[in-house]
Design brief:
Rossmann fold; Arc Repressor Mutant, subunit A; 3 domains; two-stranded parallel sheet; elongated; binds glutamic acid
């Protein structure tokens, strides 16, 4: 069997989205399952929309998830996992591969498989309008006007530096077929594929062209990517044929949908703050939970097992268990996983996460660390993600508003005196004092000192509020 090499190929126009993270995960698992390599390739040919900062952020987010690439633009730096005792397939950034693409574009021009197109955007728009007027229907394709130009004309246009594109001449007009790893056989009618552009006037190739060259030269064996790339696959198959190369195996994962079963969008109110990996990290989701959750967006183990670490996922992963059912982004499920993994943390790990969140919110002094961790532990069983601690425990950090309760001033005074008599402020002693108060007063006491009707065990809340603060709030 040939070596398994997979890749994740983001365009750095934004931060790592959960859709991208899922693509990366499946490619990572496939590579690792087969002792292959997982490559991170940066597709930055869209100069206007790309930002350098996103390259680093995407890489960091991948590493946070545990999906560290074996080969990437950081080849030299030692960040990649790979031991570097094999061939180098870089550069791993498309903007550094322009010479390579040019070589193949020239080859296709020489072989007359590609041609210069000097039509301006205005002419092309005009051509389209006229076509639609005449044909009533919208499946316009480029007229191949520039294919008719004779060689002298082409040379003189090039000498005049007339603006041009380069188009691939799609041969007439067979169907293109492949077996999708997720969806089975897929056929693209050749008649639907126009003479598409492979290179812009500035010499920068279009994505479909660059992807084919890169996947081939980087010896990528399998490409798992989102369903939205299916129409690209048609053009890419045409180019593989043109260059006489074998295509990799493709698998197209279903789109991630929102609760209305529409494509997940940044504007979805419910999930807009949950779609970037960095948002999840900031909110205090654990990478193990995110991985476990993403795993089930398009894959099923065929058993009832629900919990997978990255390493058990590698062991269980198989292409035959990929499925094309729509993957709905279900926050409840993500929270359920995260809650589960929060309960699995050691006390030390749990404390680290909790302290980080509290510190970020309140910039507390180190002396408060143990206290905040004790507070966090009160909420641990119910916690979906660490950021929730801030809303759940607000009353430890700020006095509640005056609330109407069923205790009059003298009753409150008595309760307060009971607690002031405690000499050694321990949870045990607080509990003891509480036993001498009638149970029916507990909810009023809670309301008075926390502003909430419900919460963790009252004795623990009182103990952690501290004697002074408690008395202040009772007598207020
Ligand atoms: N760079 C493309 C994107 O971010 C992915 C191309 C591919 O996977 O083939 O959408």
């Amino acid at each position: 069997m040939t070596d398994i090499r997979t890749r994740f190929a983001p365009s750095p126009t934004g931060e790592l989205h959960i859709g991208g993270a899922r693509t990366a995960l499946f490619n990572y698992l496939l590579a690792k399952k087969n002792k292959g390599k997982f490559v991170l390739r940066i597709e930055d040919t869209d100069i206007v929309r790309n930002k350098e900062e996103f390259i680093n952020k995407q890489h960091q987010d991948l590493c946070w998830l545990g999906l560290r690439p074996d080969e990437s633009i950081f080849w030299e730096s030692g960040i990649d996992t790979d031991e570097k005792n094999h061939e180098y397939y870089g550069p791993y950034r498309q903007s550094q591969r322009l010479d390579i693409y040019q070589k193949y574009i020239q080859q296709l021009l020489t072989e007359k498989k590609a041609y210069y197109c000097f039509c301006s955007p205005v002419e092309l728009a005009q051509e389209k309008i006229e076509y639609i007027k005449k044909n009533k229907r919208g499946n316009y394709q480029y007229s191949q006007k520039c294919l008719q130009l004779n060689e002298e004309k082409v040379i003189s246009f090039l000498q005049e530096k007339k603006k041009h594109l380069i188009r691939y001449r799609v041969p007439q007009k067979k169907n293109y077929q492949f077996i999708d790893l997720v969806r089975g056989q897929i056929t693209f009618p050749g008649s639907d594929i126009e003479d598409f552009v492979i290179c812009r006037n500035n010499g920068i190739p279009l994505l479909n062209f660059a992807v084919v060259i890169d996947d081939h030269l980087m010896k990528i064996s399998h490409v798992l990517r989102g369903e939205e790339h299916l129409s690209n696959t048609a053009k890419q198959l045409v180019l593989y044929e043109a260059l006489d190369w074998n295509p990799p195996q493709f698998g197209h994962l279903s789109l991630i949908l929102n609760q209305e079963k529409k494509k997940l969008s940044k504007r979805d109110k419910e999930t807009s703050q949950w779609q970037l990996v960095s948002q999840l990290r900031e909110k205090g989701y654990l990478p193990t939970a995110v991985i476990n959750y993403l795993l089930f967006l398009g894959w099923h183990p065929g058993t009832t097992q629900e919990f997978f670490s990255l390493s058990t996922a590698i062991a269980s992963f198989g292409l035959t268990s990929l499925h094309a059912r729509g993957a709905v982004f279900d926050l409840g499920k993500l929270n359920w996983y995260n809650n589960y993994y929060i309960q699995q943390l050691s006390l030390v790990e749990f404390g680290k996460h909790a302290w980080k969140i509290f510190w970020k919110e309140y910039q507390l002094s180190q002396a408060k660390k143990e206290w905040t961790i004790q507070i966090a532990l009160l909420f641990r069983p119910q916690l979906n993600y660490f950021q929730e601690l801030i809303t759940l425990s607000w009353y430890f950090f700020q006095e509640p508003r005056e609330e109407k309760i069923n205790l009059d001033f003298s009753e409150l005074r008595k309760i307060s005196q009971l607690f002031s008599k405690i000499e050694q402020w321990t949870e045990e002693n607080v509990k003891k004092s509480l036993t001498s108060i009638e149970k029916k007063f507990f909810s009023s006491i809670r309301k008075k000192i926390t502003g909430e009707n419900r919460g963790p065990e009252l004795a623990k809340v009182i103990y952690l509020l501290g004697k002074e603060e408690l008395i202040k709030r009772l007598e207020n």
